[in-house]
Amino acid sequence: MWTDTHLDAGLLTVTRQLVVDGWEVYEDAPRPMPAPVPSSWTSGTVEILRQHRA
């Protein structure tokens, strides 16, 4: 979601995941990890996301 993106910092925070259980698919919180793992982007990716969001 856009609320999970931090374009100025070039980061994404994963707060939801899709879970498949048999034929059912639902959203849930990600499994707990020892520490949050942010995903970082290149400046080109950030620019494309800015254009897409606009």
Whole-number tally of structural domains: 1
Q: What's the Cα radius of gyration?
A: 14 Å
Largest sheet, spatial ordering of strands: 1-2-5
N→C terminal distance: 14 Å
Which range best describes the helical content: under 10%, 10-25%, 25-40%, 40-55%, 55-70% or over 70%? 10-25%
Strand content: 25-35%
Mean of residue pLDDT values: 84
Q: Count the E strands.
A: 5
Major beta sheet summary: 3 strands, antiparallel
- Which structural class do you get from the secondary structure elements? alpha+beta
Question: What do you see in this structure?
Answer:
It is extended and about 40 Å long. It has one helix at residues 43-53, and strands at 5-6, 11-12, 17-21, 24-28, 39-40. The protein has one domain. It is of the alpha+beta class and 54 residues long. The strands form two sheets. It has a three-stranded antiparallel beta sheet, with no helix packed on it. Strands 3-4 form a two-stranded antiparallel ribbon.
Indicate the topology:
Blueprint: E1 5-6, E2 11-12, E3 17-21, E4 24-28, E5 39-40, H1 43-53
Antiparallel strand pairs: 1-2, 2-5, 3-4
Compact summary:
The chain is an alpha+beta fold.
Please supply descriptive tags for the structure shown above.
54 residues; alpha+beta; three-stranded antiparallel β-sheet; two-stranded antiparallel ribbon; extended
